[in-house]
Design a protein that fits this description.
Blueprint lengths: L12 H32 L4 H24 L1 H39 L2 H8 L2 H13 L5 H20 L5 H26 L4 H26 L3 H8 L4 H28 L2 H23 L5 H30 L7 H6 L14
Helix pairs in contact: 1-3, 1-10, 1-11, 2-3, 2-8, 2-10, 3-7, 3-8, 4-11, 5-7, 6-12, 11-12
């Protein structure tokens, strides 16, 4: 199905390097804007997380549809949609559900705990990936990979004990967001192996996710009076302003994913994971500065431990993959491909999100 999307052209090296640099800068900036806008919408404007999630996914549908029409045309786009309905609907629904949960859990975490603490928890994704892969797939990792998880766990404990914004609901939501995100990565990898392109995955899963989100909102509205209307009236912002902010947030959300996809297509998973690790650290430190959060020495120690642990996990995973490749067991290294800190994670649009 992805044959029209997979055609590659040879480009000069300096041109590729320029594109990589542009994608990194664009990804960092839009990720920061999305994160801060999410916090503003749920904490200041007090918009229900379901509506913010719907806005983000709707913009992904619009952007994904535009990309599909631009890349392959409307006729082939409709043909691809029919093939998804016939052959890949089950996996698409599962991935769409994971996307909705990841976004909602991430927004819930932002509502209750500090932005820097949320990003620190999200940086611990390798720990949860190894656990889930072991339980769900029965795959084991080397002692080096397991040892690299120790500073990640210690860092989370330090941050949890010393963070003034700690809230049980926010903390659990961030942890569950990581778990769902890991499951999402496994499903995404399966669909990539079935020749779906990134634009197809983004469009089809976003479309299904929007339908699921609308069904839940309608059900919730019928079950009880919508609290969001009352919350809007308690703010000093007009409905038009809130709507524009939601559009801006959704646009940043989509562009962030587009930059991540483009970067993923030009660099190796290991390079992508290192760039993502740097991005997480940047989001943590800039959020601390922007929001003026009180940070203790134990907080700093915890954040540094998590970042160092993630870097160690990347290095250990790379060594494990190289050893398996040298022994001719590359097929057994799926754990490395799917767990190397979010090599496919930007399908969410977790962060995540």
């Amino acid at each position: 199905m992805g044959k029209f999307h997979g055609q590659k052209t040879v480009v000069p090296l300096h041109s590729t390097e320029s594109k990589v640099a542009i994608c990194i800068i664009g990804w960092y900036v839009t990720s920061l804007l999305t994160l801060w806008t999410n916090r503003y919408v749920v904490a200041k404007l007090r918009v229900d997380s379901n509506f913010l999630s719907l806005a983000q996914l709707s913009m992904s549908v619009a952007g994904g549809l535009g990309s599909e029409i631009y890349l392959v045309g409307w006729t082939i786009c409709k043909s691809g949609l029919r093939q998804v309905l016939d052959n890949g609907l089950k996996d698409m629904v599962l991935l769409a559900g994971a996307r909705v949960l990841t976004v909602l859990l991430g927004l819930t975490a932002l509502k209750y705990i500090a932005v820097s603490f949320t990003q620190t928890i999200k940086s611990s994704a390798p720990f949860f990936t190894v656990l889930l892969t072991s339980f769900l797939l029965g795959q084991s990792t080397t002692w080096k990979v397991n040892c690299s998880l120790i500073p990640i766990v210690m860092g989370l404990i330090f941050c949890s004990l010393s963070d003034s914004s700690f809230h049980v609901i926010g903390f659990v939501a961030a942890l569950l967001s990581n778990c769902v995100d890991c499951i999402q990565n496994v499903v995404t990898k399966r669909l990539f192996n079935r020749s779906y392109s990134t634009s197809q995955l983004q469009f089809y899963t976003s479309l299904i996710a929007v339908v699921m989100q609308l069904m839940y909102i309608v059900y919730n509205w019928l079950a009880s009076p919508p609290a969001t209307v009352r919350e809007f009236s308690e703010t000093d912002r007009s409905a038009a302003f809130v709507f524009l902010v939601l559009i801006l947030d959704g646009t940043c959300f989509y562009i962030q994913s587009a930059f991540a996809y483009a970067l993923m297509s030009m660099v190796s998973p290991v390079t992508h994971s290192v760039i993502n690790c740097v991005k997480r650290a940047m989001l943590v430190f800039l959020s601390i500065y922007h929001y003026g959060e009180d940070v203790t020495s134990l907080n700093w120690s915890g954040m540094v431990l998590v970042i160092v642990g993630v870097y160690g996990f990347n290095a250990a995973s790379r060594l494990e993959r190289e050893n398996l490749s040298a022994k001719g067991l590359i097929a057994a290294s799926a754990i490395v491909e799917t767990s190397t800190i979010d090599a496919l994670f930007e399908i969410r649009i977790g962060g995540k999100r």
